[in-house]
Amino acid sequence: MTDMQKLYLLVPLAPLAGAILAGLFGRLIGRTGAHIVTILGVAVAFVASVVIYQDVAAGNTFNGTVYTWLQSGGINFEVGFLIDSLTVMMMLVVTFVSLMVHIYTIGYMAEDPGYQRFFSYISLFTFSMLMLVMANNFMQLFFGWEAVGLVSYLLIGFWYERPTAIYANMKAFLVNRVGDFGFLLGIGLIVAYAGSLDYVEVFAKADALAGAEMAYTGWPLLTAICICLFIGAMGKSAQVPLHVWLPDSMEGPTPISALIHAATMVTAGIFMVARMSPLFELSDTALSFVLVIGATTALFMGFLGIVQNDIKRVVAYSTLSQLGYMTVALGVSAYSAAVFHLMTHAFFKALLFLGAGSVIIGMHHDQDMRNMGGLRKYMPITWITSLLGSLALIGFPFFSGFYSKDSIIEAVHASTIPGAGYALFCVLLGVFITAFYSFRMYFLVFHGEERFGKAHEHHEHHGDHDDEEPSADHHHGLAPGQKPHESPWVVTLPLILLAIPSVVIGYLTIEPMLFGDWFKDVIFVGDNHVGLRELAANFHGPVAMALHGLQTAPFWLALAGVALSWFFYMKRPDIPAAIQRTFKPIHALLENKYFFDRFNEIFFAGGSLLLGKGLWKGGDRGLIDGVIINGSARLVGWVAQISRLFQSGYIYQYAFTMIIGVFILLTFWFNRG
Amino acid sequence: MTDIPFLSLAIWVPIIGGLLVLATGSDRNAPLARMLALAVAIAGFAVTIPLYTGFDPGTSAMQFQELSSWVPRFNINYHLGVDGISVLFVLLNAFITIIVVVAGWQVIQDKVGQYMAAFLIMSGLMNGIFSALDGVLFYVFFEASLIPLYLIIGVWGGPNRVYAAIKFFLYTLFGSLLMLIALLYLFMESGGSFSILDWHQVPLAIQPQILVFLAFLIAFGVKVPMWPVHTWLPDAHVEAPTGGSVVLAAIALKLGAYGFLRFSLPIVPDAAQQLAPYVIALSLIAVIYIGFVALVQTDMKKLVAYSSIAHMGFVTLGFFMFNTLGIEGALIQMISHGFVSGAMFLCIGVLYDRMHSREIADYGGVVHRMPKFATFFMLFAMANAGLPGTSGFVGEFMVVLGAVEYNFWIAFAAATTIIVGAAYTLWMYKRVVFGKVTNPHVAELEDINGREFAFLLVLALCVLGMGLYPFPFAEVMHASVDELLRHVAVSKL
Prior knowledge:
Chain A is mostly helical. Chain A has helices at 3-24, 26-57, 85-108, 115-134, 138-156, 163-194, 199-204, 206-211, 221-236, 245-248, 254-263, 268-275, 277-280, 284-306, 311-331, 335-362, 380-394, 400-414, 420-446, 489-515, 533-537, 542-549, 553-571, 574-582, 584-591, 596-646, 651-672; strands at residues 62-72, 75-83. Chain A has a two-stranded antiparallel ribbon. In chain A, a hairpin with a 2-residue loop joins strand 1 and strand 2. The longest helix of chain A is centred in the last third of the chain and has 51 residues, at 596-646. Chain A is globular. Residues 456-473 of chain A have low confidence and may be disordered. In chain B, helix 17 runs parallel beside helix 21. Chain B is globular and about 70 Å long. The interface between A and B is large, with 52 and 58 residues.
């Protein structure tokens, strides 16, 4: 094993060691010990990732096996690493955001009794996510895929005494399993038809797969594979209609909302599709499917962000919408733009979540924005960093989000794939919506009238999530007269460290990532797809792009969104209420999140229970046990009783029976002739 | 090969040891009975270890063979041997016996010697089933193993134990009588041999093949159990003491599945091929139908019992697709199920010992009082739901991959288990372990003691170890499974 290979191993194993130490020996090493070992583990992983990055930048990639997990049926199931430019970028993002979240957690979870357990989980998550992105084969990918799902489940339900949290975590796991169902079948098809789990080997057979048909169905094989795999991505990356778990996942502590449900885990689906670009490129049907799902998510989840009053839920819906943007980019073959947006989004969304968490600390665990206002005076660092994050999110020129989002919009514009028109409409309107709800949140929280500290005036009606939000017992809020306060340095330091890349990372990396050759050997774009080629032809450096951005529609749409939210929430707060009254049906539709949850509860959950009861009571108990088993027992008893009648012991009965028997036999005998 | 008859030791050490335990007499000697039983169980496991270490994975031939005449008049032999298909079950069985003895340590206070003896004797008999190469010998072990299990349920079981025990006994007896007829028929067709290996080579016309297949299907299907002859299992589990449930789930259910590979497939391959679609249909019904039934159970043991049936559906599905991934996956699934379902029943036993209730509704918030237990239970629940990294994933994954190769729609149907299986397992876990404490009895629960910790830890290591590195488990199977598939592909007509 070379030194570099040892380093590859170190990256996932260091967080794993931290997780095991903090998890199993948490009581022994104490709270301080737990955060030291886990932070150390993640820091080692980050530093190692930086070294690997430099190595990859120098042109060294790696594809090899760590150990053979299983051999069966001529298939090698292996655990192995593929280290290339895409992997190393993900490794950097994951370990950096994870490190920030680890530090932040010291402040956020300071008073929680489950301190060590929390650190153990987030380190375990980091390990799982790294195994996912570093995989060189489908089995390990699935392995990491499910492992991050497990940790997400554990963390959403971290406060296990809350009914909403343990409902949300089960929902998250099960909805993800629906996605995994498709994912598993996709992997099955790959194994059955390509005979390998190894990425490189499968990609080498992509053309053969594209020409093949599926047995029994006659479907084009590669399209089926890609759609199955993408169903997995829809679960993990929360695309409509498998998005329903993500808003509820906000029941988990805020640091994991930032790490798992914004920056890293939910982008696994995007990463996966980008990794599979040699397959997806060969199926236009699959790409169109991806595009339409992504566009729908981008726009319609954005709408829901408008009506949320819980600060975390606004950010959650914005995450859904941004994931939609990334998916759209995949659909138009702009894989590198999707991954680029994944990276910029990881920084600014983690920043926004951690900022929201800082606000929540300042507000003593009140998450309702209607109880906030004017916080900029009390929480200056949180205020400034949140503003920077919001500007990045809405795609303000020169900010990181501008470069990634504008590239996506331009790529959609250039695309000719079916569905591109609809997608362009969605992503453009989405820009306006994003700006509107982002600055609605920003103004409600940091500007305007100070609405906190007014006891008993807490809004009782928590907008949506009617029955699912009795986490009100955790909404302590500020006592009358109490003022919010800025959070400690362990909280604000990560905010600052995340704000820096949120502002500059796009400017610095757009050229190599989108138009240079950073992803040259990793991401494959077919000649029949435009991808980013047209954009590249018109690219004259990041400054020119930003200046040009000032004259384009997205910029003005974003500006309009900000202006409108300022007008609605700063100038004339009576207008939103009036609109709400006037357009009641639309508002009800949004409040109920398009009734997805209710439909799932009644149709899928209720239906399954009904079916189960029917099969159990009707099938097992009624038919099998009732009629057949106990029935045959009764039959035996019945026959026995009847035969007992014949054995009465009275000669005359025997004689009579004999006569009847002879009579019957004779009748048959005569009739026969 | 050595001359030490390890298979005979694996069979007779527990049986003779069990008789010795029985000889300790009344409960005044209970401590002695326990210690002796543990010693016997460990010795019984120790003698099986050379079966693995000395196993040659390169050959599909029977290994560690022992052959001596038993009833020369009918050419019945005491013929033992293991191949890659059976060897792991001998080890699993001997291993689980230790766990069961330890698990019954304090819980059983009544007729301790008899209880321990019943388990030890059963363990020996089941090793006999897995290693018998003579039809009559197999049948004798197969039937004899019913008796201890019947007694375990009937004597140490719950309030409705007599109904459950009789249901169990009659169901399985009915099946085995048909098997006896099939065995006698094969004896005559083979020109007077009871050797199972001879039967593998006997040519048979399709008509008798189908009849023999059906006889075996009923006999083994009841044991597995396959839908629709499964209804004895939930009753038996609910009434059985914890140890009984563990052995039932971990080992007894494997006997039927093993029978398919040792008898049905190689002896009547044409019938097996012809009727495979029906068996696959029954397996899929088991996976889906039973999954939904498990979802609505209110009794924890019943829920896990139903989940066992669904998991065994995966096993029979894997067998009858006739590809390597399917069969090896099914075998792996059987071993994993031994660990996981055994552990699930032990976890329920831990709760039952404290609360004397199996009703899910009586629990809630157990994690507040029993964090260590909750951690173990979570691991096993996740294994039951087939999470990668646990043993529960390996077999399911392989069978689904094999199924896609066979027919996409079968894989589609089977893969629904990753949703439904997660739903019933996690929903139960949520209602039992998470949430606020509502029942005052839960508020007084004490976390697992050292003994409970020990056996759960050992099983946890097995579940994780097999999940992270299943290679050695599959390695011993390859040669035998390949040979079986080659054999099945050749028509006997």
